[in-house]
Design goal:
The protein has eleven helices and 13 strands. By secondary structure, the protein is of the alpha/beta class.
Length: 329
Amino acid sequence: MPMKTFITGATGFIGASIARELLRDGREVRVLVRPGSDTSNLTGLDVEIHRGDLRDSASLESGLKGCDVLYHAAADYRLWTRTPQEMYRINVDGTAAILEAALRNGLSRVVYTSSVGTLGNPGNGTPGSETTAVSLADMVGHYKKSKFLAEREAEKFIARGLPLVIVNPSTPIGPLDIKPTPTGKIIVDFLRRKMPAYLDTGLNIIAVEDCARGHILAEQRGRIGQKYILGNSNLTLRDIFCLLEEITGLSAPRVRLPYTPILLAAYVNEAFAKITGKEPLIPLAGVQMAAKFMYFDSSRAVRELGLPQTPVKEALRRAVEWFRDHNYA
């Protein structure tokens, strides 16, 4: 009887895309689903659903029984939260718990989904790499800090003998972005004509399908203990809007906003959010991140894994179509 592959975070953007790629490969898939989760990304998929939670070690232990491979893609991904300690419990403690269960169950391979946000980044347009110097002090906001600490947990398990590969996705775009992610929200706001201006910043973009395939390639070809940036093209935010203009026929914003007033507005928004408990319209962490060009070099993953590089314009087109088909815009 073939062994199953276990996925955490399969109801989310990247995790659901990984599940689809594995099913295309003929793999048997079991997914961890928290009670009350939105499972619309799993509709129609031939997966075994295991109810559990990263904060419940017993559910992780039972979920991994009979599995040979783990993809740990679950994370609390928000630019603002009223309860930061909960984010650390999920991203750091939850990672340690699932990896402990994987070690006890003797899995043959684990792929841990980190983020380029945990990597060093010069910020001046020079791409960061897997080996660029970085420290916890470089992390902006609780999400990045928690993912940085979670990556350190993963490295401890590698030292204990867990056959684990780390992947660091850049900014995936495409179908299944149900929340949507902060980048998906930029696309949705553009489609709704709620994006009158832009900041002078930049991102590394990758098609979510390529990102998912990169996870599988990391399982099959990645070196244990190694990190791989799953990315494609480095683009300014202005470049991205120009591509969206070509795809949709809608006008790209022409006004570039000065950074300092937006930063001050974000501080004010954050102060009100702490009082009201409502998410700020301008998340401070997002504005602080925009101070740097988040450019990265994915050549190691292309060279060692064979990471696909779908043109970014095509990835944006798929994202636009999906958001429109699902009534986001």
